[in-house]
């Protein structure tokens, strides 16, 4: 884009560009939006803090690479493109954007909902997984799960059932709502925080999260996912949910 624009300006001749560009019907074209997009992008793809292969055999390296480097990266890119149209939004956090979708300019509401949600949800997803994860929960979340669901196994089976039954693409979540732990699902990249609900943990049941390794066997992916859970991070999020 930049090269094209530069060539265009060169062809116009430096002395005349101002007038000519100003006279163009799409005067906004003259604003260097493409040129400055990279420098002003406020949302960044967070690097994975472990290797692509660190979650094998439960989640394979190829899935992790495509999921993080392509899918998550695309959500970040699209979110930046939306907020770059409205510089006043560049000071907002993704949480602030997602909790005030209705107040955003109409033409970017759906883009922010889908791509801001995608960015927020995946950032959590990478953090609540990790190498040497899994096992039974520890800390405060272990107690809270027992209180709410009776046993960890009962919680897991309700969570996996909700994820299996969710039709199409979406997420299954453990949230804290009105003082209680609950399992909910959301379609697409909708995030619970847009409903004012803080997500403690969530699993991505879009096919891109498991299809290379599990094909159509979503229940197998849901079952295996517990082997990579970073309970320390889930406890951090549970503590935040108590303040939310
Ligand atoms: Mn995903």
Q: What would you say this structure looks like, in words?
A:
- The protein has 244 residues and is mostly helical.
- It has one domain: Iron/manganese superoxide dismutase, C-terminal domain (minor pseudopilin epsh fold, 3-Layer(bab) Sandwich).
- It contains eleven helices and three strands; from the N terminus they run ααααααααβββααα.
- A hairpin with a 2-residue loop joins strand 1 and strand 2.
- Helix 4 runs antiparallel to helix 6 and helix 8 (152-165) runs antiparallel to helix 10 (218-225).
- The longest helix is centred in the N-terminal third of the chain and has 24 residues, at 61-84.
- The chain is globular and about 50 Å long.
- The model is unreliable at 1-37 (pLDDT under 50).
- Bound molecules: manganese (III) ion.
- The site of manganese (III) ion has 7 residues, from helix 4.
- Judging from the principal axes of the Cα atoms, what is the shape? globular
Second CATH tier, the architecture = 3-Layer(bab) Sandwich
Structural class: mainly alpha
Average of pLDDT: 87
Helix percent reads 40-55%
Bound molecules: manganese (III) ion
CATH superfamily: Iron/manganese superoxide dismutase, C-terminal domain
Q: What is the level 1 CATH name?
A: Alpha Beta
What is Rg? 22 Å
Unreliable segments (pLDDT under 50, ≥5 consecutive)?
1-37
| CATH topology descriptor | minor pseudopilin epsh fold
* H/E topology pattern: HHHHHHHHEEEHHH
Across the major sheet, the strand order is: 2-1-3
Approximately how much beta-strand content do the residues carry? 5-15%
């Amino acid at each position: 884009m930049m090269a094209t624009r530069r060539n265009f300006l060169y062809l116009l001749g430096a002395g005349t560009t101002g007038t000519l560009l100003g006279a163009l019907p799409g005067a906004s074209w003259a604003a260097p939006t493409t040129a400055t997009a990279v420098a002003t992008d406020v949302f960044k793809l967070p690097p994975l803090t472990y290797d692509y292969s660190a979650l094998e055999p439960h989640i394979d390296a190829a899935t992790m690479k495509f999921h993080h480097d392509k899918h998550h990266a695309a959500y970040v890119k699209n979110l930046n493109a939306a907020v770059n149209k409205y510089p006043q939004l560049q000071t907002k956090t993704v949480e602030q954007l997602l909790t005030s979708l209705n107040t955003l300019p109409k033409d970017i509401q759906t883009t922010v909902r889908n791509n801001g949600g995608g960015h927020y949800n995946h950032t959590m997803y990478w953090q609540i997984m990790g190498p040497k994860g899994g096992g039974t929960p520890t800390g405060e979340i272990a107690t809270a799960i027992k209180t709410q669901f009776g046993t960890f196994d009962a919680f897991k089976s309700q969570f996996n059932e909700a994820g299996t039954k969710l039709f199409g693409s979406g997420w299954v979540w453990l949230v804290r709502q009105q003082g209680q732990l609950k399992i909910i699902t959301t379609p697409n990249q909708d995030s619970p925080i847009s409903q004012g609900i803080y997500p403690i943990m969530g699993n991505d049941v879009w096919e891109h999260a498991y299809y290379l390794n599990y094909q159509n066997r979503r229940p197998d992916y849901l079952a295996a996912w517990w082997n990579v859970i970073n309970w320390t991070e889930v406890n951090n999020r549970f503590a935040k949910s108590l303040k939310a």
